[in-house]
Design goal:
mainly alpha, four-stranded mixed beta sheet, 8 helices
Length: 424
């Protein structure tokens, strides 16, 4: 290792990150920046120089040849230090920065070329080279993200080579088919662990990508765009998809246990038979989403929007739906054992033959709701729940004995209000 390499290693190791960022800032390459550094550097050099000879040479009568030389030619020493040192330092720093940028540009161009190779090993090398560039250069981070995203979108739908006679797949076989190609999975993994994600201003765009069976466990794809993407059977355990756009996405039989989907958009998404145990969907948008036969045990759907959602046969044991909006939702034969629905909106919802044992429906809105055939026990709480004359209850159920409040519609104002005691 030569002196230049040792010096560069020492800089990378010992120079603080804020100093590197300061030096690499484009401001210093301008006229004002150069003048500022020249003045500051000159001041430090001058101060150090004066301190040296004041300590070593306290007066002009010193017999030392060095002291005499310093006292006689001190103005020239100062002028030389002020003029030469800053420019030398700046030149060295800027040349080093230019070399780094040139190398990154060359590495990026080569990686892009290799990404189009027909050889899998070459494409994989290109993907991991791009990851390294994104880690080394914050400025080039988003360019790499866009490149890999485009690579996934364009190549995930390529027809797979098949041997023998082709047969039409059933929906079940389609959901269980082979995971994405190795290079597509590698690109997904790189995107899921990118370094500078907290500084991003744009969405990672994976819309309409074919990612069936993909492994995205613990991936960080907050705010990503998965509109109309195919993620059937995908593994998204503990994935971070906060505020992501999954509208109209296909997630049938996907594993989303413990996933974070707070404020995510899943309107009209397909999650039939998906697993969302302990998933976080607080304040998520799930209008018209499909959850038929899905497993949502201990799921968090507080204040979520599930209007007209399809939850027939879903397992919602211990689910948290406090303050959620489920107007016109379909929950036939769903299991809501020990579920929390306090203050939820279930106007015109279909809860026919739903299991509500030990569920908490305090202050829930059940106006025009269908609860016929529902399984309700003594532990099911309906305290201060609101209902109308059109609400359908199971046989033998008396809402008055459950401390429920009857609401009537004012035809003039179009608003619901509590019924007078004589009408109850």
């Amino acid at each position: 290792m030569n002196i230049k390499e040792k010096l560069n290693d020492a800089i990378d190791k010992y120079v603080p990150e804020w100093v590197k960022k300061l030096v690499s800032d484009p401001f210093w390459s301008g006229t004002i920046g150069k003048m500022t550094i020249a003045v500051v550097s000159g001041a430090f050099l001058s101060g150090g120089f004066f301190l040296f000879y004041l300590i070593c040479c306290p007066n002009e009568n010193c017999d030392s040849m060095l002291c005499k030389l310093v006292w006689k030619h001190s103005p020239w020493f100062l002028f030389t230090g002020l003029a030469a040192a800053p420019s030398m330092l700046l030149t060295w720093f800027w040349r080093r920065q230019q070399n780094v940028e040139r190398l990154i540009t060359e590495r990026f161009a080569k990686a892009i070329e290799q990404l189009g190779s027909k050889e899998l090993a070459v494409r994989l090398g290109a993907i991991y080279q791009l990851e390294r560039i994104a880690q080394d250069s914050k400025r080039d981070h988003w360019t790499v993200v866009e490149t890999l995203s485009a690579f996934i979108r364009e190549n995930s739908w390529k027809k797979e080579e098949k041997t023998g006679e082709s047969q039409k797949e059933t929906p079940e076989q389609e959901a269980k088919r082979t995971p994405p190609a190795t290079d597509i999975q590698a690109a997904l993994t790189v995107l899921g662990r990118r370094k500078w994600r907290d500084t991003e201003q744009n969405q990672v765009d994976l819309s309409k990508a074919k990612l069936q069976g993909a492994n995205l466990r613990n991936a960080h794809l907050e705010g990503a765009n998965f509109y109309f993407a195919h993620l059937e059977g995908a593994h998204l355990y503990s994935a971070h998809l906060e505020e992501a756009n999954l509208s109209a996405a296909h997630l049938e039989r996907a594993s989303l246990s413990a996933a974070h989907l707070e404020k995510a958009h899943l309107n009209s998404a397909h999650l039939e038979k998906a697993h969302l145990n302990s998933a976080h969907l607080e304040k998520a948008y799930l209008d018209n989403a499909h959850f038929e036969e899905a497993v949502l045990m201990d799921v968090h759907l507080e204040e979520a929007f599930l209007n007209s959602a399809h939850l027939a046969g879903a397992n919602l044991v211990l689910a948290h739906l406090e303050g959620a909006s489920l107007s016109s939702a379909q929950l036939e034969r769903a299991t809501l054992l020990d579920a929390h629905l306090e203050k939820a909106n279930l106007i015109a919802a279909n809860l026919k033959m739903v299991d509500l044992r030990n569920a908490n429906l305090e202050q829930v809105i059940l106006i025009n709701t269908n609860l016929s055939g529902a399984i309700i026990d003594a532990r099911t709480s309906f305290k201060e729940a609101l209902y109308s004359n059109e609400t359908k209850f199971p046989k033998g159920f008396d809402p008055k004995k459950r401390n429920m409040k009857l609401m009537v519609l004012d035809k003039q104002s179009g608003k619901w209000h509590p019924a007078s005691p004589d009408k109850e």
